[in-house]
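[job 0417] fold request received: ABC-2 type transport system ATP-binding protein
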Amino acid sequence: MTDLVLDDVSRWYGNVVAVNDVSMTIGPGVTGLLGPNGAGKSTLIALMSGFLAPSAGAVTLDGQPVWRNPSVYSRLGLVPEREVSFSYLTGRQLVQASAELHRLRDPRTATRRALEEVDLVDAADRAISTYSKGMRQRAKLASALVHEPEVLLLDEPFNGVDPRQRMHLMELLTRMGEAGRTVLFSSHILEEVEHIARHVEVVVSGRHAASGDFGAIRRLMTDRPTRYTVRSSDDRRLAAALMAHPGVRGVGLEAPTGATELHVEVTDMGAFARALPALARSEGITVRELTPTDESLESVFTYLVQS
Ligand SMILES: Nc1ncnc2c1ncn2[C@@H]1O[C@H](COP(=O)(O)OP(=O)(O)OP(=O)(O)O)[C@@H](O)[C@H]1O
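[job 0417] inference complete; emitting structure tokens
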């Protein structure tokens, strides 16, 4: 078992609190670190990989502090968000350089094995500058894997990667999680996390907002009050009918541009979406449009932090 543990960890940069009193345990399998931009995901990954000292609290790997502890570094692999600076190198040269930095006994064999693991053998002797974004991610992954770490940390690995390559990368991470590795990747996109993460940790504004399997996180996100704008053949009548509906928390009628707009706040969006057509039909009203008005991930995250 390999557990990466964060214990009341905070990190500030001057007056900016990037990570605020976060505690979490990352175990074997694939974990998604989900949060909007600026939530503190990169800072958390830098803290977990020993690149950054916590301002308070501790990060440990199986009880050993990660910060300033070279014996722990050899058990960690990091795939950073930034691109490889030396893109004139071939994939093989990049991975071998990493193998040599780790002072592996047989860097050539380790390099070959890592390139095989990420399916980059055919392109291994081409310059990285000729690679697609997905191939560059796999080259970075091979270089992070060359010393066979138990823990793999990836910062936004799917950003800018085309759908086919993304699928490929997801399969690789799934395979590594199934093989017993502790794999954590950050993302601001719910669907990416849904695809492969066994476990999800949500961070918002530097704080730990939620934790659980994907179903639990998805339920937290959908069982929240949601607002819709409705356009229909008779907004006033529909507003009156909706007010009597138990799942409706509030109804408002506005006419910003002359035409009326009906705003509805509901407690259970699934139940509301199912009930609305029957309700409209019984009143003889035609619903023309139903638009969620606060479906951005930011608003979901904000709700999670408040709850
Ligand atoms: N070196 C730094 N100096 C000052 N502030 C920083 C520094 N690095 C990060 N921050 C701030 O800390 C907060 C968290 O940033 P971080 O990059 O960890 O978030 P993130 O979730 O990874 O976001 P993104 O996905 O946009 O990179 C942000 O407010 C950011 O501006």
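[job 0417] notes: The chain has a mean pLDDT of 88. Residues 13, 16, 18, 35, 37-43, 188 surround adenosine-5'-triphosphate (CB under 6 Å).
[job 0417] exit 0
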